[in-house]
């Protein structure tokens, strides 16, 4: 039975799509069958896999509103073991359409029941809002990865998201758990960054990933080439970082570093 992980944070620009794309690529490289669901109208995850949104006929929108079966929306990619359900601009208005629909918070979950066993991991890229699409993802998921910046205001956003998770657990999905909090665009040289990490670790012990994703040019460049960073530059710090994250998600031991390298750990396997 596949594990469904939502990647969510109501703040934009924290690396949700980047995390979905690059984590999926690593898991696929480890012979795990992975499905990515792009539920953000911006479609950044879709583009990052080299999929042209203009050519998409069946999308996440189609399955949420019940116009198509989820099996018909799946698009294979050139990257090992990774498939995608793409997003289009139609998703921008789906919040309004869902208001009058039955089971509006369970629509993605009901579709996923048909394919969950076909994949080892299903990753859902959520929009930067705590609306119906994100709630659908949380209701359908086994766990949630929360990418966040190591900045003061990010703590307020984390508090709001945790409250939403509690509401979903109490009303719709008691099994939902936090897979981990992931610091992105991290610079360990900054005191404020380390202070924020320490604060989050205090309130969420054992829920913060050891891996910190650094600011990295290759991570930023890769989407414009329609590739995950490990396929764009396998020797980059970004590839190293998402390899470490993948190891943690798989529950495999991560060898502690000998030293820090500008905010990211070196490692060996």
Average of per-residue pLDDT values: 92
In order across it, which strands form the biggest sheet?
A: 3-4-2-5-1-6-7-8
The H-and-E topology, N to C, reads as EHEHHEEHHEHEHEHEHHHEE
Which outline best applies? globular
Helix content: 25-40%
% residues in beta strands: 15-25%
Number of helices: 11
**Rg over C-alpha atoms, rounded to the nearest angstrom:** 18 Å
Structural class of the secondary elements? alpha/beta
Low-confidence stretches: 260-269
Number of strands: 10
Distance between the termini: 27 Å
Major sheet attributes: 8 strands, mixed
Question: What does this molecule look like?
Answer:
- The chain is an alpha/beta fold.
- It has 11 helices and 10 strands.
- The chain has an 8-stranded mixed sheet, with helices on both faces.
- Mean pLDDT is 92; it is low at 260-269.
Ordered list of secondary-structure elements with their pairings:
Layout: E1 3-7, H1 16-29, E2 34-38, H2 44-48, H3 60-64, E3 75-76, E4 82-85, H4 94-98, H5 107-112, E5 121-125, H6 132-140, E6 143-148, H7 152-171, E7 177-186, H8 191-203, E8 208-214, H9 217-221, H10 229-232, H11 237-250, E9 260-261, E10 264-265
Helix pairs in contact: 1-11
């Amino acid at each position: 039975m596949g594990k469904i992980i939502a990647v969510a944070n109501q703040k934009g620009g924290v690396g949700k799509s980047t995390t979905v794309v690059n984590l999926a690529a690593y898991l696929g490289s480890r012979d795990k069958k992975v499905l990515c669901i792009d539920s953000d109208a911006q479609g950044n995850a879709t583009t990052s896999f080299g999929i042209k949104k203009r050519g998409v006929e069946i999308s996440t929108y189609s399955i949420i509103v019940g116009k198509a079966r989820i099996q018909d929306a799946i698009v294979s990619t050139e990257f090992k073991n990774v498939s995608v359900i793409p997003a289009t601009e139609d998703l921008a208005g789906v919040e309004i359409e869902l208001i009058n629909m039955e089971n509006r918070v369970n629509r993605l979950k009901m579709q996923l029941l048909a394919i969950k066993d076909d994949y080892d991991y299903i990753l859902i890229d959520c929009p930067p809002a705590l609306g119906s699409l994100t709630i659908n993802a949380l209701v359908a998921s086994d766990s949630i990865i929360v990418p966040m910046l190591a900045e003061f205001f990010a703590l307020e956003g984390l508090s709001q998201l945790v409250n939403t998770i509690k509401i979903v657990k109490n009303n719709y999905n008691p099994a939902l758990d936090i897979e981990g909090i992931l610091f992105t665009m991290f610079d360990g040289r900054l005191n404020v960054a380390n202070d924020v990490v320490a604060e989050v670790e205090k309130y969420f012990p054992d829920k913060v990933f050891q891996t910190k994703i650094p600011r990295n040019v290759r991570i930023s460049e890769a989407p414009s080439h329609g590739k995950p960073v490990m396929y764009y530059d396998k020797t980059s710090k970004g590839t190293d970082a998402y390899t470490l994250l993948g190891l943690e998600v798989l529950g495999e031991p991560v060898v502690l570093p000998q030293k820090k390298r500008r905010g990211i750990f070196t490692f060996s396997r």
